[in-house]
Amino acid sequence: MVDSDRERLRALLFTTPQREEIEAAQRACCGRCCSACEAPAAYAWRKRAVDLSALVDQAIRSELTAPERQALLLHWYRGLSVSDTAQALGVSRPTASVTLRRAQQKLEQVLQYVVQYQHDVTSSALVPLAVRRAAVVAAARAGMPDAVGERLRVLREREAIALSDAAALSGVAQERLASIEAGQAQLSAAELLRLSAFYQVPADFLLKGVDQNDGDVAL
Q1: Ramachandran region of residue 183, left (φ > 0), alpha (ψ -120 to 50) or beta?
Q2: CATH of domain 1-142
Q3: CA-CA distance, 187 to 177, in Å (whole number)?
Q4: Is 122 exposed, middle or buried (0-12, 13-18, 19+ CB in 10 A)?
Q5: Whole-model pTM over 0.70
Q6: Domain ranges across the chain
Q7: Domain 144-219 indexed as CATH 1.10.260.40
Q8: What tens digit of pLDDT does each residue of 36-87 get?
Q9: Cβ atoms within 10 A of the Cβ of 160, count?
Q10: Which residue stretches of 64-173 are H helix?
C-alpha cells in the first residue's frame, strides 16, 4: 500500500460523525459544546473505536482457535514481539507469525461490515486499520498496570483519548502529562486531583490501583 493510500485510509478513520452520533454525544453530556467538556463530534469519533473494541475482544474469544487466541493476546494485549510470542508459545517465529496473521485476518473478516457501517464506506481496505486501532483500546481495557504513569496511559487509551485531548480537557500540560505517563515525572497534588476528576476514578486508584471503598481494582 502506497503512502497516499495510507493517508487516505487514516483520514477515513475520522470521517465526519453522522447526525445520530452527534445527538447521542450531546445526550451523554450536557448538550452544549464548551471548554469544560469534549465536543460532541470528538466524542462520536472516539466512541467508534471504543464500541468496536468490545466486538474485537468478543471476536478474539469466540471466533479464534485456542492457538490463535493465545498468540493474539500475547502479541496485542501484552505487547510481546513476534519472537517473544513464539517463545512463550513454544513454537518457531515463522509459525507464530503465520498464526498471528491468520488470527488477524479472521477478525477483519468478522468485523468488516461493522467497520464499513461505522464509517459509511464500502471498501474493505479500511478494515485492518480500524480493527488494529480498536484492538489498542481493547488491550487497554483488559488490564491495569501497577505503575501510576502506566495506569494513566491505560485509562486514556481504553477510551481512545488522544494525549493532546487529555491534556487540554484535564488542564495538565501535554508535555507534563506525557512525562508522567512515561514514568519520567511524578504527579503533583493538583495534577492528581485534576486527572482523578477527568477520568472519574478515586485519587487512591491512580496512586495505588485500588479503590478506597472496597479494596478492589476500580474497573
Answers
A1: left
A2: 1.10.10.10
A3: 9
A4: exposed
A5: no
A6: 1-142, 144-219
A7: yes
A8: 566 766 777 778 888 898 899 899 989 999 999 999 989 988 888 999 999 9
A9: 21
A10: 66-72, 82-89, 93-119, 127-141, 148-157, 163-170
User: What CA–CA distance (Å, rounded) separates 188 from 156?
Assistant: 19
List all residues 6 or more positions away from 65 whose beta carbon is below 8 Å from its beta carbon: none
Work out the angle between the directed axes of helices 174-181 and 148-157 (0-180°, nearest 10): 110
**DSSP letters spanning 52-84:** HHHHHHHHHHHHS-HHHHHHHIIIIIS---HHH
Query: Quick one: cell of 41?
Result: 463530534
Please indicate whether the domains covering 1-142 and 144-219 agree at the CATH topology level. Answer: no
Cα first-last separation, the chain: 39
